[in-house]
């Protein structure tokens, strides 16, 4: 850990674990170090980064103001999978925010990440530690597999407990807006501060500066074509194609799949979230022609899971048979 902290202080990049996914970190206040993140990930500069801090007081150096509702959420949720977008100070390089006036900030709920932040002594910009648009890494091996040729140092903190990126909530307007659903269910936010708006995806804006990461219409995608099946509909292999299945709980499916990854044996969406990206990677490496994935219920973590599947997919299977649960 001291070695990783020293590298970060020198302006290098280091991959490290959080409770959501592994991040590719650099000193958020060093524009040259932040540029290295974009280079390694092959990430367009119109896609902003999230800044990680170790303690709540550190936020006041990075943002101009913290509304009462945002402060209440931070006090109740952090450390945790919630990113708050707030008006940035001049201390934060424009490269971090894609030139936009708001910066996303959170405190990760992982002891290794917190220790690294404290030892480094500066905020860390850290998107997911993978090539841009690919499946996010939830283990150190995923990082090595995806960025191995780059020889990036990786701090191994074991598998990520949450497994999907943080929920991003913007306070840049009059009403708080969910920019990206994630590891903190939207219902939990509403219980603490009341109703919030949700951003409407705009595929026509994919080449413009994004208000938060993970908002592009195509993201988190395997190399293998992925198609969706609505919840409670039977999944069937595509004729003449070697087909894999990504499913969960008691979702119905027929025989004939070349490989099946079941995220859970019950209705526990937390288990599904923790295993989603790893299962997608397994199927992506199974020499398949297509992957079929069951959607999730549109509540709780299911909203974030469906968001990831939708951005990773090419659409829906055209014809499926309706069936009832057992």
CATH superfamily of the largest domain: DHBP synthase
Note the gap between the termini.
50 Å
Helix content: 25-40%
Structural class label: alpha/beta
Q: What gross morphology would you assign?
A: globular
Calculate the mean pLDDT score and round it. Answer: 92
CATH class of the largest domain: Alpha Beta
Number of domains: 2
Largest sheet: 9 strands, mixed
How many DSSP helices?
Answer: 9
Q: Which radius of gyration do the C-alpha atoms yield?
A: 19 Å
| SS elements, strand count | 13
Report the portion of residues in β strands.
15-25%
Oligomer: single chain
Characterise this structure.
This protein is an alpha/beta fold. It has two domains: 2-205, DHBP synthase, CATH 3.90.870.10; 225-312, Rossmann fold (3-Layer(aba) Sandwich), CATH 3.40.50. Helix content is 27%, strand content 16%. The chain contains nine helices and 13 strands. The chain has a nine-stranded mixed β-sheet, sandwiched between helices. The chain has a four-stranded parallel β-sheet with strand order 10-13-11-12, covered by helices on one side. Helix 1 (2-9) packs across helix 5. The longest helix is centred in the C-terminal third of the chain and has 16 residues, at 269-284. It is globular. The termini are far apart. Residues 320-326 have low confidence and may be disordered.
Draw up the topology in text:
Blueprint: H1 2-9, E1 14-16, E2 23-27, H2 31-41, E3 50-52, H3 59-62, H4 68-77, E4 82-87, E5 102-106, H5 111-120, E6 124-125, H6 140-147, E7 167-170, E8 177-180, H7 186-193, E9 197-198, E10 225-229, E11 243-247, E12 259-262, H8 269-284, E13 290-294, H9 301-312
Parallel strand pairs: 3-5, 4-7, 8-9, 10-13, 11-12, 11-13
Antiparallel strand pairs: 1-2, 2-6, 3-6, 4-5, 7-8
Helix pairs in contact: 1-5
């Amino acid at each position: 850990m001291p070695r990783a902290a020293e590298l970060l202080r020198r302006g290098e990049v280091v991959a490290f674990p959080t409770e959501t996914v592994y991040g590719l970190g650099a000193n958020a206040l060093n524009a040259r170090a932040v540029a290295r993140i974009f280079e390694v990930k092959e990430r367009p500069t119109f896609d902003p980064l999230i800044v990680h801090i170790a303690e709540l007081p550190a936020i006041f150096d990075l943002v101009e103001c913290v509304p009462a509702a945002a402060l209440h959420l931070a006090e109740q949720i952090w450390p945790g999978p919630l990113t708050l977008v707030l008006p940035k100070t001049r201390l934060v390089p424009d490269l971090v925010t894609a030139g936009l006036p708001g910066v996303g900030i959170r405190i990760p709920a992982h002891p290794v990440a917190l220790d690294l932040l404290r030892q480094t002594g500066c905020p860390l910009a850290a998107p997911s530690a993978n090539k841009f648009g690919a499946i996010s890494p939830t283990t150190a091996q995923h990082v090595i597999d995806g960025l191995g040729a780059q020889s990036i140092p990786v701090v191994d903190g074991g598998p990520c407990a949450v497994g999907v990126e943080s929920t991003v909530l913007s306070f840049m307007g009059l009403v708080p807006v969910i920019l990206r659903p994630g590891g903190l269910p939207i219902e939990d936010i509403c219980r603490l501060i009341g109703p919030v708006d949700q951003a409407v995806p705009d595929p026509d804006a994919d080449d413009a500066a994004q208000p938060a990461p993970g908002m592009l219409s195509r993201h988190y995608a395997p190399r293998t074509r992925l198609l969706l099946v609505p919840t409670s509909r039977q999944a069937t292999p595509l004729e003449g194609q070697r087909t894999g299945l990504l499913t969960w709980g008691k979702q119905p499916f027929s025989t004939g799949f070349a490989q099946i990854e079941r995220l859970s044996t019950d209705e526990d969406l937390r288990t599904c979230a923790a295993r989603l990206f790893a299962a997608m990677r397994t199927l992506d490496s199974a020499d398949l022609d297509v992957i079929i994935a069951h959607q999730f219920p549109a509540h709780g973590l299911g909203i974030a899971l469906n968001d990831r599947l939708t951005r990773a997919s090419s659409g829906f299977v055209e014809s499926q048979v309706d069936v009832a649960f057992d």
